Amino acid sequence: MVFFDSASCVTCGAVLDFSSxxxxxxxxxxxxxxxxxxxxxxxxxxxxxxxxxxxCALTRTRPADADAAGLAAWAGVEAxxxxxxxxxDQLGLPYTGSPELVFDLLSSTAGPVxxxxxxxxxxxxxxxxxxxxxEGLRVSLAEPYRTVLGHLxxxxxxYYWLVLVDGRDVLAEFRALFGDERADYADSLRVHYxxxxxxxxxxxxVSRYAAAHPWEDWAETFAHYLHIRDSLETAAAWRxxxxxxxxxxxxxxxxxxxxxxxxxxxxxxxxxxALNAMNRSMGKDDLYPFVLTTAVLTKLAxxxxxxxxxxx
Length: 312
Fold this sequence. Notes:
Layout lengths: L15 E4 L4 E4 L4 E2 L3 H4 L4 E2 L12 E3 L6 H24 L10 E5 L9 E3 L2 E5 L5 H10 L7 H17 L6 H8 L6 H10 L19 H24 L3 E2 L5 E2 L11 H21 L12 H18 L1
Parallel strand pairs: 5-6, 6-8
Antiparallel strand pairs: 1-2, 3-4, 7-8, 9-10
Helix pairs in contact: 2-4, 4-7, 7-8, 7-9
């Protein structure tokens, strides 16, 4: 039994390498390991010795070799990024066009770092990889969910707005669903943070932050689409079927074969409900603490259409 981030077999201890191209593990020696293998434990295979894997190659800025704490934090963020990049590849989403997607993974120990996206550059504060820091921010911002992978999925959502929506004939439909993105972004964020949470956002947005600006609404919705797709792929691989108060089989078509949005949601709703119940049995908060209203589902369907159209 091995998992996506496994570096060795739990039974015999054999060292494992991962081929993102073949979506499969191989015993060590089957090819060259990523040049970051010794630094951060990346186990992805590459075509040539001393080269970077497709995920690590997207990192434009990272901590210096002498920064031991920074390297440890970087390793954790890169592990989450490999999961992101693998999913983007499975969905057939491009990230090498114009603008090209790159990552600046920066340590805030030397100065403030703002996690965000600008023109294809995703900046991540490596402190987000530390549980106390991230959980403290989650509580102070009254967020129900905050993970490194969630950050990455949200920020690449901004990138894919440029790739999948901006300047295309689907922009009018985007504005009808999400709002006019030409609204002043800084003013919108100021109003968002100054306004008390009266939960008026809940009927039309997947999270409170999504209500801040149409760009944030798209990025949050896009991130949730990736959450749902990845979770359903895992559930399908484990042959999970949900029966009970909400009875429905959990199925997920491989992205390469396409997927019907209604089928995805019909599988996701009972699965997420069951997973939330399981978490509560362990004294934990809901695994998926979000409500998908009709308006949110319509936005998710729009994201699904954009993703599958780009693949086609």
